[in-house]
Write a structure and sequence with these properties.
Order of helices and strands: HEEEEEEEEE
Low-confidence stretches: 16-25
Strand order of the largest sheet: 1-2-3-4-5-6-7-8-9
Number of helices: 1
Number of domains: 1
Largest sheet: 9 strands, antiparallel
Radius of gyration: 14 Å
Shape: globular
């Protein structure tokens, strides 16, 4: 699985689990407004998260692969569906479902990656 997809899924899991995102100075430098968070890490990777109602828009740049990617997440109660595409043509779809303190995650990509994993606030992923 490509780094951008991993980063997007981990970021989405954190957003879903915590319903908020905090700045971590040692990992990335972030700027935030009412509904936009934009970050750049020490390796030159960049991403932004924009919220509009029940929809979250992610956009990023992966320095190692020199590729841009976008992802849209739509929330319906405890269920979040997401779709994304990268500048090299890779596309992915998936969902996250929150059940109590547990988040069930499933995705597949046009690059052949697919997975189902569970995250918990106490034990992690």
């Amino acid at each position: 699985m490509r780094n951008a997809l991993k980063t997007a899924l981990i970021m989405l899991s954190l957003l879903v689990a915590a319903d908020a995102m905090a700045q971590v100075p040692s990992l990335a430098r972030c700027t935030r407004s009412a509904n936009l968070l934009a970050c750049v890490d020490g390796d030159g990777n960049a991403y932004s998260v924009n919220t509009a109602g029940n929809t979250i828009y992610l956009r990023g740049f992966e320095m190692a692969g020199k590729r841009h990617w976008v992802q849209t997440n739509s929330r319906y109660g405890q269920l979040v569906f997401f779709t994304g595409i990268a500048s090299d043509g890779e596309a992915w779809v998936g969902y996250n479902q929150r059940v109590g303190w547990t988040t069930i995650n499933r995705f597949s990509s046009s690059g052949g990656s697919s997975a189902k994993f569970t995250c918990n606030r106490i034990s992690g992923c």
